[in-house]
Amino acid sequence: MARHFAPRPHQNSLxxxxxxxxxxxxxxxxxxxxxFFFFLQSSPNPLYSSLNSSVPSAFSKYCxxxxxxxxxxxxxxxxxxxxxxxxxSHTSQDQASAWDNLYRNDFHPWDRGGPSLALADLLTERxxxxxxxxxxxxxxxxxxxxxxxxxxRTALVPGCxxxxxxxLLKTFGYDVVGLDSSADGIRRAKxxxxxxxxxxxxxxxxxxxxLGQESWVVAxxxxxxxxxxxxxxxxxxxxxxxxxTFLCALPPKLRPQWAKRMSELISxxxxxxxxxxxxxxxxxxxxxxxxxxxxxxxxxxxHPGHEPRxxxxxxxxxxxxxxxxxxxxxxxxxxxxxxxHKAGMNEDGSVRDFISVWSL
Length: 360
Fold this sequence. Notes:
7 strands; globular; Rossmann fold; 7 helices; 20% helix; single chain
């Protein structure tokens, strides 16, 4: 039997200028909820997939030209991610191979071990920000197309890793694509989903929706061909894109391309949701993960494809006189979630990271 979590009333309307934080009330999970939601959160270390290139001035001291050696990773090195990608050549192929090598050697401490509670709360509590995956008629039955199939919105999770958030979106009724550059990562995602579906309690839909369908793609996020035939009506565009530990995995030089590709992949009425991790890390400090803050997202997404100017400390140089460019995304809400992964929390249990919602 499906578990139903009714959205609670929210206090604030959409924020076109999100300088006032809108705190989501925590969603209390029912004691007999499916096993999927009780997966323990694991190590707080980063990240998912990464690609590399040269870096802007604030980050240039970390740029090298060596190539990655595909040896078994030294898992005793506490800076293994930083050192691995500091030694990388600046090609997406080498970067993808490095992440795949880590997966193949069973080294993935960035994996959280479960889905994003911040995303689950946002989808449940704020239907005014993000339309439900399935529209219903007056009786609460899902709408169907001419063939009788339930009409479902589409979602994309780039850098999906072991697929926890892909499965979460499936339970909310989305047809969701999990994308990763690592073939071994996608293999693990498929195994993870199969194990969860076979576990006691299984995987059940949230509310009065039918389970969506998941599909998996091994590809370079920046390539133009992998999205052909996917997304809404096969358009290559998606109604919802969820970014967590993806932007922060990219070297700063690739940030403009990240924003441009997001602008290309989002549908006209779609939403980009970014769980902004890691907040509080010095912005010029070596990654991955590279530190981010709301100003970084604003500078990138308001000018897709254009490189922001950075101060020496990695902060964005504000340019209020520059108008948004074609394809710009607009932030409609900046949220401080009440729950998130342990990696996004302070020692006192308070949440450190933000979650932002964007539209064309």
